[in-house]
Each structure stands twice: as C-alpha cells, then as structure tokens.
C-alpha cells in the first residue's frame, strides 16, 4: 500500500467512501469536495484502489498564522485497525510543515475520536456552549435577512468577534455562503448583531450568533421569531462568548495542533 494524492479518477470512489462511512447526503458530500483541490486530498491505495482518505486542502488563518483544516478522515471497513488514518495524519503533517503551515485544526466526528487525534499532537481543545431559550415576542424588532454575501461574510464575522476566529480561505467562504443558502439556512444582521440560523420543522437552530451584548442578541432573536413564528431557539455559542452567561454547558468541538491559544473555530461541518 502507498500514500499519494488523489486523482480525478479516484473521486467517484472517494465520494462513495465518504457517504458509506459518514452517512451524509450526496449534496453535503459534494460540497465538502468542492472545498479541496486534488493536491489536498491524500489517499492510501491498495494497488490502484483508494482504501483510506484524508482531506487537508482548505486553508485557514488565526492570529495571523497559516493553518489547514483536516476533515474527511476515513478508512474502508475491511482496512481498519491497520494504521491507515495514523499514517495519513503523520504524512500530511510532514507535507504541511515543509510548505510552511503553522497549525492544523480538526472537528472529530464523535467524542470518542478526541483521544485518538490527541495521540497525533492535536492537544488544544475548543468548546461550544449549547442551550435553548424561549424568545419573547417583540413586534418592533427588526433586522436584515439573507443579505450577507461571500465577500461580506469574513468582514461580518470580524466585526462581531469576541475572540480570535479561525477563518476560511476566500474560496471556502464563497462555497460555505452558497451552501448555507442552498440548504435553507438564513443570515440575519442588525447594526450590532449577526447570526446564521436554520428552521428544521418546528425547530429554530441558531448555528452562529455574535452581538455586542445579550440585549442586542435578544432583539435579533425576536426579529427571527417574528419572521418564523418559532418561539424557542436552540443556540450554539463560542466558549468565550459573553452572551447569555450562565446558560447551557460546554461541549468539545474542535482540536488544534501547533496553536496553543484560545480561538473560535466554528467550521460549520456539523
């Protein structure tokens, strides 16, 4: 078996591997592959057949440092427990170090995988705070909906940041913004607040929320309630957010290697 970059001919097999292992819909799988060129997709082949994969072609930045996002790490069932994922992680780490990257970030698919990645140097954890709140009605609450474009996305997040953010590269911002709207997500902004939310049946899922204070965030949520009619919001915040203090509990979200600082790392792959 050997490690190499994926070829264009490998893509149908790799996408099928992704769907078989992660159980994602084809649209999400295709979206994930648009974020990465072939030179960022690393595979282990048995002969000419890909049997394991790691994607590391999406550049990110934080604190002025250059990093890469590790995702799509998977191995065919019959090749598991042979060290394939570990071999790929070590190989890519060497490649990226030679290319001048400073750090790596990954979002383990399950809680059990945090310990696995820590064996390969991913030692800095980031967390999210998740909780649900009831939204009071406010007929006067107003906001702008679905006006955030790819060009404005990074700028908008920077405006409202509460700590340093792991930013995507420009292409990933473009693809992510397109994916949010394509999959039914919405952006909402006011002068002093910003959010991304989804409506799933009768649930309001607020995937990202920044504001200058809790009162401003509440007004933004009230505008969403007036638009959607949904009274309860399920909210995800960064570990250092000052909004709604005392609400919810911290859960592990991402791991970093080579960047030992507090950072907001919502990479939207959930």
List descriptors.
single chain; alpha+beta; 7 helices; 13 strands
Q: What general form does the structure show? A: elongated
Write down the Rg: 20 Å
Total beta-strand segments: 13
Q: Which residues form runs of ≥5 with pLDDT under 50?
A: none
Q: Which band does the percent of strand residues land in?
A: 25-35%
Secondary-structure element order, as H and E?
EHHEEEHEHEEHEHEEEHEE
Q: Class by helix and strand content?
A: alpha+beta
- As an assembly, this protein is single chain
Helix run count:
7
State mean pLDDT (0 to 100 scale).
Answer: 93
| Helical content band | 25-40%
Strand count, sense and barrel status of the largest sheet are: 13 strands, mixed
Question: N- to C-terminal separation?
Answer: 32 Å
Q: How does this structure look, described?
A:
The chain has seven helices and 13 strands. Strands 1, 2, 3, 4, 5, 6, 7, 8, 9, 10, 11, 12 and 13 form a 13-stranded mixed beta sheet that branches. A hairpin with a 2-residue loop joins strand 3 (49-62) and strand 4 (65-75). With 270 residues, the protein is of the alpha+beta class. The protein is elongated.
Question: Summary?
Answer:
The chain is α+β, with helices and mostly antiparallel strands. It has helices at residues 11-22, 26-34, 84-98, 113-118, 150-160, 170-182, 214-228, and strands spanning 2-5, 41-46, 49-62, 65-75, 103-106, 124-134, 144-145, 167-168, 186-190, 193-200, 203-211, 232-238, 249-257.
